[in-house]
Amino acid sequence: MMTMFNYIRAKLLQLDKTILLAIFHLSLLACLYALLSIYCRKSYAMPSQSNLLHYDAYWYFSIKEFGYYYQPNAGNNAAFFPLFPLVWSYFDFSNLGISLFNLAVFGCSFVVLLKVEKLKAGFLLMLLSFPSFIFFALPYSESLFFLFCTILIIGYRKKSNLLICIGLFGASLVRSVCMIFLPAIIICELLTATFERNSIIKAVCKLLASTAGFLLASWYLKCATGKWFYFIEIQKYWNRHWLVPTFPLTTISPARVLGVDAVTLLLGCIAIYICIKAAVIRIRRKVSESATENRDLDPSVLMSALYMSGMSILDVVFSYKSNGGTNIWSLNRHVMCTPFALIFLVYLFKHFNPLPLERLGLALLIVLGVFFTGAFEYPNLRVLGFLVMFFSTLIALKHHKAALGFFVIYYLLAIFLQTAFYAEFLNKLWLG
Fold first, then answer.
1. What are the two backbone dihedrals, phi and then psi, of residue 333, each rounded to the nearest 5 degrees?
2. Given its phi and psi angles, is residue 135 left (phi above 0), alpha (psi -120 to 50 degrees) or beta?
3. What is the spatial distance between Cα 276 and Cα 350, in angstroms, rounded to a whole number?
4. Taking the model in full, what pTM does it have?
5. pLDDT computed for residue 40 by the predictor
6. What is the DSSP letter of 328?
7. Closest Cα to residue 166, out of 177, 152, 147, 176?
8. What is the rounded (10 degree) CA torsion for 345, 207, 141, 154?
9. Which pick of 15, 120, 317, 372 has the fewest CB atoms within 10 Å?
């Protein structure tokens, strides 16, 4: 018995810490949800073939089963890009099967993305427990998008233009993100490239890869519906249109999900600042022609910040008004359920050391963000509490070795929200 125990212990020690923590968190979450489902059956239903098909999952399922169809003057499945439903159809998984497949894809991608970072256990669990991550265990396209964007980031890290192009091409087949990727690629090249002939060719290849994915998806949709770029026009049937934001911002159900949207928007604002700062540093060095100091951001971090900036702006100005404020629905899912958000948070945690004036500005941003997002109107544990605890825990883990108290409180709140959000989705309540 002792020999078997020592063997298992030795094998576990050989596993990467990121894998062990991912297994621990998932096991804890599954056990907690199972207990809640036993004692609160109505509120915490177990996943089934029917209750997994809500919102976008239903549309993807309809594409898998029946293909695309054109229905004028109404929202329909032509709004969604084809790669995820094609993968689902190819493997012919059940609704629960595709959810487990998505979870496996995300788990593998998460480990590959972060295992080289050598992160603290608390910070890794903080990332894993973000409430929006429930979408990685649903029939949504988030996991496939996460996979290709992980390939993209690894490509930037390894300076492999092939991996970058594969990531851009695949991600552009999963979602209509080309309008975010193209300016992000251009800005990233301007702030990091040497402008030699080889670097220009590589930049053009990146632009072509994203454009090719977008055009191929558009062509596939055109063949199925007879309409070019109908996925753009169809957005108006979900009330999305260009507008000047009205504050305080809101969501479809503020008392449930505004906290995660508020955190996401504030991180998006910090990403915008980081991008502007990177541009100023680059311009200053070019003007002074100083080659003694190189403070450029790593391209993978800069690309991540640019994606977060672009998506945050898009989800605020391309939306609709609800209860007098601009609705930022889906912001948490579009930004946080990506490797870009994780890489950016890792950068903030490990490498971002703001000057005193910058610290004051960031603190002011967080305080004002409570009011700009309307979080102050819902001062409960699930909204204002999550916003405050997220940033408090991030700062505590970064600067204080004895941050266990902050982490435990945040982690308990986060896993409660993950289980609650999953249950709410199964009960057909909107989350993003």
1. -75, -45
2. alpha
3. 20
4. 0.93
5. 81
6. -
7. 152
8. -50
9. 15
Q: What is the pLDDT of residues 27-61, one digit of tens each?
A: 999 999 999 998 887 789 899 988 999 999 999 99
Which 3 state secondary structure label does DSSP give 412?
helix
Alpha helices in 254-298 (DSSP H): 254-288
Burial of 32 (C-beta count, 10 Å sphere; 0-12/13-18/19+): middle
How is residue 210 written in tokens?
A: 């994203």
2 pLDDT more than 70: no
Q: Which two tokens stand for residue 113?
A: 């993305």
In the three-class reduction of DSSP (H, G, I as helix; E, B as strand; rest coil), residue 71 is classed as coil
Q: Structural domain boundaries of the chain?
A: 2-426
Q: How far is it, in rounded angstroms, from Cα 48 to Cα 26?
A: 19
- Residue 297: per-residue pLDDT: 83
Q: Which amino acid is at 114?
A: L
**What pLDDT digit, counting tens, does each position of 236-265 carry?**
887 888 999 998 888 877 676 788 999 999
State the amino acid at position 427 in one-letter form. Answer: N
* DSSP 8-state secondary structure symbol assigned to residue 80: S
What are the backbone angles phi and psi of residue 82, rounded to the nearest 5°?
-90, -20
Tell me the sheet residues that pair with 242.
318
Q: Which two tokens stand for residue 347?
A: 């950068």
Q: What is the pLDDT of residue 15?
A: 52
Structure-token pair, residue 8: 């298992």
pLDDT in tens, 301-318: 999 999 999 999 999 999
The tokens describing 221, both together, are 């949709």
- Report the distance separating Cα 410 and Cα 391, nearest Å: 10
The shares of helix, strand and coil residues in the chain, as percent rounded to the nearest 5, are: 70, 0, 25
Give me the amino acid identity at 287: V
Secondary structure element (H or E) that encloses residue 370, with its range: helix 356-372
